[in-house]
Design brief:
The protein is built from 15 helices and 25 strands. By secondary structure, the chain is an alpha/beta fold.
């Protein structure tokens, strides 16, 4: 057990690591239970040798121990989204070449038939020995791959970003320094655990530092407010949509409840927003309610976090601060040459936090990096007096909604499978709650009858909830340029303004 994440846990011993619906667990419990699960995964083998092990479990103790077990056994963890329909789960099984699936008993039925058809064993999170066997777990190095996170790309289908133990460690060390994590911190986690935000920024950062991570399986405004008001938390991290929902809940609460919630939330030393642009009205309203000016940061699956507003100092609305410790960030033009100060350019990132590759996609991997090794994020930004401001995506086909990265092309492909749909175009439209709301312009086949409700229900059966269009407009034809390509800026203009206008 050579990785610092695990050797550090030995030193934290009896300190509480996880509080979850299953109970309260120490770092010693985490090491013992994850060793037991690792032994179950290894069987007669000495090392999983980077086999991909899919993980389908809600945030909680079972998820944490399974993730650590996969890592400690020498495998690559592939977290699956608990909200995804069968087709998306099957894509992950196939693309990753899964050797096994660890599933929570309440979710096992979601993947059982698909796994059986592929002869992939399913191991329940409850199906582990009570104590670790005596065999020594494999020695691991920072260069070993350990995690595949699926992220949408311009080709439409989600592709796996492969990270090493070294990538994870570098990301955690950078955030620990920037945000002054200590063993006395207590953080609340209700974020999905198939994204870097929940896995690295919250869970692994807490466990690296000997802190306490309190886990809720899902987000509901009132219980989260009650925990924030408990005076027992020091850190809280969420996406802009969550902060908007919390503000709505506060506005609807009785005056005495509002006072208690606001007073309790002030006990946190830091609150962070990320995964999508934070609307300035949300930032200002949250500060009015809690006294906290949210720390906005910028990152993505492939790079972890790259930019952050300061822990101490001015946090400018609409800006994401400066490069984090140990992270190289530059702005470049279309030729990958650095741009002059004050000139907009593409955000490019370099350093040990940057992912290894896209899983089994050498062509996409090569295209994602410059000749001198900088990762092309596809985001445009400008630097103003030392602070970075993200201007938007350089591709209209990648949307950010509710903290999720979404491929418009993937949604279009699904909508086009409906028998009544002749063509469609999906765009993201600026939205104060969602960052971008997913909108679809649809052309139906001649004489076909199709309602918005019917098409949305069709999409719900085939797409993750956040990918289902929130607005659908039926049109006789899509706007196109002289070359026949759909002009998405023209489509977006049709949806500009509040929904329903």
């Amino acid at each position: 057990m050579t990785l610092p994440l695990f050797t550090r846990a030995l030193g934290f011993g009896a300190r509480t690591a996880i509080v979850a619906p299953e109970g309260r667990f120490s770092y010693a419990d985490l090491l013992a239970t994850s060793a037991a699960v690792a032994s179950r995964l290894l069987g007669d083998r000495r090392d999983l040798a980077e086999d991909r092990i899919c993980l389908l479990a809600p945030p909680g103790w079972a998820y944490v121990t399974a993730q650590w077990a996969i890592w400690r056994a020498g495998g690559i963890a592939v977290p699956m989204a608990v909200s995804h329909p069968t087709a998306e789960l099957e894509h992950v099984l196939d693309d990753a070449g899964a050797a096994a699936v660890i599933a929570h008993p309440e979710l096992a039925a979601r993947v059982a038939a698909s796994a059986a058809a592929r002869r992939i064993p399913v191991i329940l999170t409850t199906d582990v020995p009570r104590a670790a066997r005596t065999e020594v777990l494999p020695d691991l190095t920072r260069e070993r791959a350990c995690l595949i996170l699926y992220t949408s790309g311009t080709t439409g289908r989600p592709k796996g970003a492969l990270l090493t133990h070294g990538n994870i460690q570098a990301q955690v060390e950078s955030l620990s320094a920037a945000w002054a994590w200590t063993a006395d911190d207590r953080v609340l986690l209700h974020l999905p655990l198939h994204h870097v935000h929940g896995i690295v920024n919250v869970l692994t950062s807490a466990l690296w530092n000997g802190a306490l991570c309190e886990i809720m399986p899902s987000f509901t405004p009132t219980p989260v407010w009650e925990r924030l008001a408990s005076n027992s938390l020091t850190l809280y991290m969420a996406v802009p949509t969550v902060y908007a929902r919390l503000i709505d809940a506060w506005d609807a609460a009785p005056p005495e409840v509002r006072t208690a919630w606001s007073d309790g939330a002030r006990a946190c030393r830091l609150m962070v927003s990320g995964s999508a642009a934070l609307p300035v009205p949300t930032l200002e309203r949250w500060e009015q309610i809690t006294g906290h000016r949210l720390l906005e940061r910028y990152g993505m699956t492939e790079i972890g976090m790259a930019l952050s507003n300061p822990l101490v100092g001015e946090r400018r609305p609409g800006f994401v601060g400066a490069p984090l410790p140990g992270v190289g960030v530059r702005l470049a033009d279309d030729t990958d040459a650095p741009v002059p100060a004050g000139t907009p350019g593409e955000v490019q990132v370099y350093g040990p936090t940057v992912f290894a590759s896209y899983w089994e996609r050498p062509r996409e991997t090569a295209a994602a990096f410059t000749a001198d090794g900088w990762f092309r994020t596809g985001d445009l930004a400008v630097v103003d007096h030392g602070a970075w401001r993200i201007l938007g995506r350089s591709s209209v086909d990648i949307l950010k909604t509710g903290g999720e990265k979404v491929s418009a092309l993937e949604i279009e492909d699904v909508l086009r499978t409906h028998a009544a749909v002749a063509d469609c175009a999906v765009v993201g439209v600026a939205d104060s709650d969602w960052g971008e709301r997913v909108c679809a312009a649809v052309v139906t086949r001649p004489n076909a009858q199709l309602s918005e409700a019917e098409l949305r229900a069709y999409a719900k059966d085939r797409l993750a909830p956040y990918k289902v269009p929130k607005q659908i407009l039926f049109m006789p034809e899509l706007p196109r340029n002289p070359m026949g390509k759909v002009t998405k800026p023209s489509v977006r203009a049709l949806f500009e303004g509040p929904p329903g206008t």
